[in-house]
């Protein structure tokens, strides 16, 4: 029996190395990008619901971008706090800000996609750049950096939305590592010509792409997924590219407690079941290869079966994975995560197992 487990272990490692070298290496070892200003007409779209504290701080940062032709479309999705009033003040203060007020609609109660659809239809520019109300750009050249990747054919741009670093917080390291690993996956598959998702914290596409697929209509019944489900449907190897220069990043404040982050990830992961078949398979295979790798290492070393070979394979796997993760962390300015990789990887896998099991027995909470 142990010999078959050993062979299965080797197969799992081959799968892992195929992902990291064959797919993820396309991004990790790729050349750096540079800004080539295009000065395209851009509508920056921000949808907010009960975000009064965040919009006070972050909307002015968007209004101060160094870009010649842009507007900001602020969407208030029936907020119960002072968000709408703050937006109205911004509309008076900044001439390029336009406000979209969304009233509660019984048919689309609490559905962010409905609010976004109204905002997109109200946008006057041909190119749309999305971020969340709790996000802020890393530089005044954010719009320039994101739009510099548009070409005649490349009409969808996937960006990186990171989280702030919190000192002496292991949870923060897990959150940021998961964000880096997710970005590594969707950037790499996009470079391989098989884009499958993007993040609403930092995403751009030409307005016509939205209408080419009839907006969110095919997944309007799914409460989340205005970013990843849209990209899963609309993106392909011809029309999609990525932006990973530091000037194009956005950041958000991470969740402060494990419960808050766990709830957030339950919502994010629940949309994956609506992905295309191939995308579900490649994500599932990657996760299973991670899980079985650790389980089989424990079994084989516990019985001391071919332990020298197992340790050699273990070292090879970690050398390759650590190199790819390290290069990716460097590109995304998350260098401190390199030394924590072995620990946070295991913690993340255990958390993901917990999320999958929990989602089977109860539905996650969606838009506020």
TrEMBL record:
Glycosyltransferase 2-like domain: residues covered: 43-176
SUPFAM superfamilies with a match to the protein in the record: Nucleotide-diphospho-sugar transferases
Domain of life: Bacteria
Spans traversing the lipid bilayer: 6-29, 283-301, 307-327, 339-361
A Pfam family of this chain: Glycos_transf_2
Alphabetized GO MF terms: glycosyltransferase activity
Keywords, sorted A to Z: Glycosyltransferase, Membrane, Transferase, Transmembrane, Transmembrane helix
Protein family according to the UniProt entry: Belongs to the glycosyltransferase 2 family.
Protein name as it appears in the record: Glycosyl transferase family 2
Source organism of the structure: Flavobacterium crocinum
